[in-house]
Amino acid sequence: MAKLCTKTAIPAGEMINRCVPENATFDGQATFAGDKLVYLWAFPLQTATLNGMYTSSVTADDCIPVTSFFYGNQIQGSTKTDIVESSGYYNFKGLDDVSKYFVLPSYCQHQNLSVTKTTDNVKTLLEKRSVLPW
């Protein structure tokens, strides 16, 4: 197996600084788990295979997803299926030590950082994705 490792810097100004899409509408706020303020957002979600509404609640301070809900339909070929999907997260905590979960292989530890120029920047690529926008 080839041991290839590439590190690429995200160019300045390319980080996405929002956690919900620009077309989302603010639906209010609530308190989660008794003391955590969350914001409620809704937006239409349309991809090559999904068409519907997506709602999400995220923490007010860190924009951590707390709940998500999608209703609409999925299209595969000529088949259209109605979908209702809901998920929630609980007991989340910040990561004190990311190295506990994100360990680079030993052969990548001393890899030099490369700066590459591409036709599409990271921000543009993420915005073009046909999946959830964050």
General description of the model:
The chain is mostly beta strands and 134 residues long. The protein has a domain at 21-89. Helices cover 5% and strands 41% of the residues. It contains one helix and seven strands; from the N terminus they run E-E-E-E-E-E-E-H. The chain has one helix at 122-128, and strands spanning 7-8, 25-32, 36-46, 50-59, 65-76, 79-88, 113-114. The strands form two sheets. The chain has a five-stranded antiparallel beta sheet with strand order 2-3-4-5-6, with no helix packed on it. A two-stranded parallel sheet has the order 1-7. Strand 2 and strand 3 (36-46) form a beta hairpin. It is extended, with a radius of gyration of 19 Å.
Helix and strand succession? EEEEEEEH
* Mean pLDDT figure: 76
User: Helical stretch count?
Assistant: 1
Strand order of the largest sheet: 2-3-4-5-6
> Structural class, from helix and strand content?
mainly beta
Question: What's the short story on this structure?
Answer:
The protein contains one helix and seven strands; from the N terminus they run βββββββα. It is mostly beta strands and 134 residues long.
